């Protein structure tokens, strides 16, 4: 079993829909990261959180430390949100080099 | 502001040829540096990381090596490429703190023919 599991693996949505991507982890963490990888391959960091909730535009990330679970929500989805969304965790205690453990990613396609 | 440069963006190399991918970071000092590989349809695999000049840690045995000749320069190399080295290679940097975000380069798509 992977230390970081994401669901669903693939998601197709209609423009305007509310989208939720889930991430569960089985290890102690100091922080959880949500990353976005566009079709060209470049990766950007969306959120880094260790508790509660963060919001940036139409994106919302939540984390429940007790349940070892995080969700990424996209409100009013748009075709330009189509990308691979990757969950990653910083371990606690931190590993030498602050290495992250990555989920396999969720492929999101938003249709117009 | 901090930026990360990675080149080339795409590369096609024959089997047995050498490889050198370069990554440089601007706007920060003493970053942690990372090389990742992403095979088609797969997740990110950490290949090497470095916490300082000349300090390289390897995560998986392979045909590749890494070097950090300067604080903000990270190089991925191979003496002889294999077909299995094809993939998407990403360089990233992070701060020394455990709760530092990770910043990625745009990646290099390597095809070994």
Task: Please specify the SSE layout and strand pairing.
The complex is a heterodimer of chains A (112) and B (113).
Chain A: E1 4-7, E2 10-14, E3 19-25, E4 29-37, E5 43-49, E6 52-56, E7 59-64, E8 69-74, E9 83-91, E10 100-102, E11 106-111
Parallel strand pairs in A: 2-11
Antiparallel strand pairs in A: 1-3, 3-8, 4-5, 4-9, 6-7, 7-8, 9-10, 9-11
Chain B: E1 3-7, E2 10-13, E3 19-26, E4 32-38, E5 44-52, E6 55-58, E7 65-70, E8 73-78, E9 87-94, E10 102-104, E11 108-112
Parallel strand pairs in B: 2-11
Antiparallel strand pairs in B: 1-3, 3-8, 4-5, 4-9, 5-6, 7-8, 9-10, 9-11
Descriptive notes:
The complex is a heterodimer of chains A (112) and B (113). Chain A is 0% helix and 60% strand. In chain A, the strands form 2 sheets. In chain A, strands 2, 4, 5, 9, 10 and 11 form a 6-stranded mixed β-sheet that branches. Chain A is an all-beta fold and 112 residues long. Chain A has strands at 4-7, 10-14, 19-25, 29-37, 43-49, 52-56, 59-64, 69-74, 83-91, 100-102, 106-111. Chain B has 113 residues and is mainly β. Chain B is 0% helix and 58% strand. Chain B has no helices and 11 strands. In chain B, the strands form 2 sheets. In chain B, strands 2, 4, 5, 6, 9, 10 and 11 form a 7-stranded mixed β-sheet that branches. In chain B, a hairpin with a 7-residue loop joins strand 9 (87-94) and strand 10 (102-104). Chain B is globular, with a radius of gyration of 13 Å. The relative contact order of chain B is 0.33. The mean pLDDT of chain B is 91. The A-B interface holds A 30-31, 33, 35, 40-45, 48, 50, 86, 88, 90, 92, 94, 96-100, 102-105 and B 32, 34, 38, 42-44, 46, 49-51, 57, 59, 88, 90, 92, 94, 96-107, 109.
Tell the overall outline of chain A: globular
Kindly provide the radius of gyration of chain A, computed on alpha-carbon positions and rounded to a whole number of angstroms: 14 Å
Strand share of the residues of chain A? over 45%
- Uncertain runs of chain A are none
Give the proportion of residues in helices of chain A: under 10%
What is the rounded distance between the termini of chain A?
Answer: 36 Å
Gross geometry of chain B: globular
What is the N-to-C succession of helices and strands of chain B? EEEEEEEEEEE
Radius of gyration of chain B: 13 Å
Total count of helical runs of at least 4 residues of chain A: 0
Question: Please, what is the oligomeric state?
Answer: heterodimer
User: What order do the SSEs of chain A take from the amino end to the carboxyl end, as H and E?
Assistant: EEEEEEEEEEE
Distance between the termini of chain B: 38 Å
Largest sheet of chain B: 7 strands, mixed
- What is the typical, i.e. mean, pLDDT of chain A? 93
Structural class of chain A: mainly beta
What is the residue-mean pLDDT of chain B, rounded to a whole number?
Answer: 91
């Amino acid at each position: 079993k992977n230390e970081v599991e994401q669901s669903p693996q693939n998601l197709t949505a209609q423009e305007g829909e509310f989208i939720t991507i889930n991430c569960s982890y089985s290890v102690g963490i100091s922080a959880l990261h949500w990353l976005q990888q566009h079709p060209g391959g470049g990766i950007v960091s969306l959120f880094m959180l260790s508790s509660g909730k963060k919001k940036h535009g139409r994106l919302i990330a939540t984390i429940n430390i007790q349940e070892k679970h995080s969700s990424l929500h996209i409100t009013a989805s748009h075709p330009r949100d189509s990308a691979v969304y990757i969950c990653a965790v910083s371990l606690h205690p931190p590993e030498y080099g602050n290495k992250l453990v990555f989920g396999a990613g969720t492929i999101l396609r938003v249709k117009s | 502001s901090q930026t990360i440069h990675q080149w080339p963006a795409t590369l096609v190399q024959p089997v047995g040829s050498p490889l050198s991918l370069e990554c440089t970071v601007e706007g920060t000092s003493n970053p942690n540096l990372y090389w990742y590989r992403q095979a088609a349809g797969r997740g990110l695999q950490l290949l090497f990381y470095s916490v300082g000049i000349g300090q390289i840690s390897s995560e998986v045995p392979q045909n590749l090596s890494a070097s950090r000749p300067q604080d903000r320069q990270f190089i991925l190399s191979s003496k002889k490429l294999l077909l299995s080295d094809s993939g998407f290679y990403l360089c990233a940097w992070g701060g020394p703190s455990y709760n530092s975000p990770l910043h990625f380069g745009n990646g290099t798509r390597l095809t070994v023919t």
